[in-house]
Prior knowledge:
Two copies of one chain form a homodimer. By secondary structure, chain A is α/β, with parallel strands linked by helices. The first copy, chain A, has helices at 8-26, 34-41, 45-53, 67-77, 93-99, 103-106, 137-144, 155-167, 194-211, and strands spanning 31-32, 59-60, 64-66, 85-89, 110-116, 125-126, 129-130, 132-133, 148-151, 172-175, 188-191. In chain A, the strands form three sheets. Chain A has a six-stranded parallel beta sheet with strand order 8-5-4-9-10-11, sandwiched between helices. In chain A, strands 1-3-2 form a three-stranded antiparallel beta sheet. A two-stranded antiparallel sheet of chain A has the order 6-7. The longest helix of chain A is centred in the N-terminal third of the chain and has 19 residues, at 8-26. At the A-B interface, helix 1, helix 5 and helix 9 of A face helix 1, helix 5 and helix 9 of B.
Amino acid sequence: MTNRQVPLVVIKRLPRYHRYLGExxxxxxxxxxxxELSEKMGVTASQIRQDLNYFGGFxxxxxxxxxxxxxxxITALLGLNKGYKTVIIGAGNLGRALANYAGFxxxxxxxxxxxxxxxxxxxxxxxxxxxKHYDDAKDFxxxxxPDIAILAVPKVTVNRVAEDMVSYGIKALWNFAxxxxxxxxxxxxxxxxxxxxxxxxxxxxSEFGERK
Amino acid sequence: MTNRQVPLVVIKRLPRYHRYLGExxxxxxxxxxxxELSEKMGVTASQIRQDLNYFGGFxxxxxxxxxxxxxxxITALLGLNKGYKTVIIGAGNLGRALANYAGFxxxxxxxxxxxxxxxxxxxxxxxxxxxKHYDDAKDFxxxxxPDIAILAVPKVTVNRVAEDMVSYGIKALWNFAxxxxxxxxxxxxxxxxxxxxxxxxxxxxSEFGERK
Lengths: 212, 212
């Protein structure tokens, strides 16, 4: 199975497929039709069939899809079977919320360290990890080689922290500071802008208000 | 100016336009060319011109765009000038992180209450608000009429909480529990799935690894 030809729009739907198929498995449902999936996903059944054909076509006429096989294929495609190791930089409310985030380990990621500069936080435990000083991040990262750094630091410091991470050998950043990080080289960056979704909500409310 | 004909794909870009234009204003830059915007936004200059024409076309040949006018138009289009009032349900790490989220009030939203059921949290202050018991949310919401309830509660309780909110008169939900809420009626829901973006990151890492 190659994923070279999978269009971006299909890739973007993968996490949602993964979520729904996982819920089906949790509910011990092992078989699903494209019609049922289509209702859950909010796209047409023919779109579902097209999407899933990219992943090897696990559907059988009159039977539907084998949920476990489809789930496993999408898990592999998303790299969730790689056991990626993560560190969190910033142990404020957001950093601690992310550390405690249940979906994290369920999706194959392991948290191996959490760092901050605030003396009031260092030494405290969160999600089984003792918060360490940021000054110790360099040696730790060089020794333990985590794959992903999760940046839960303020906007004003995030650029410096991101550069530090890259210089310590980190290849992927999951950034929650409200700025689009854009670093040179082969670093993979995913910027999360919580306010974007709040603004989408607000747009829909305001549009709805006008419609009435 | 009507927003009826603005395509969804353009709407989805609005928060990003808003963010970049806001950064320009912060840096006292009052004029921008479509080429400059295009580099920042990562879409073509002709796409930028097309997008912005939907909002009244504030560009002038040889001058570029008036940043403030464009920013104000997009602010209004996104409903960020409506002064929407919010409450947060759930004062755990995520709820407190959201309460302290700086981009919140900057974008015209005000937080008027935060609720939890955990006795250890009730009475504590977060972001200028005293955490109240969830049992008091009903009377509070009926009296104060917030526009948006931000749901930072566990997956297992979110459906009940969402139903409560709607029955108290809330018309919009910003949901952080890892489930796609889908309520009957005219409630506007925006579901945030943090793990979706983590999975996208993971997909890109795994794809990149194979490419090497």
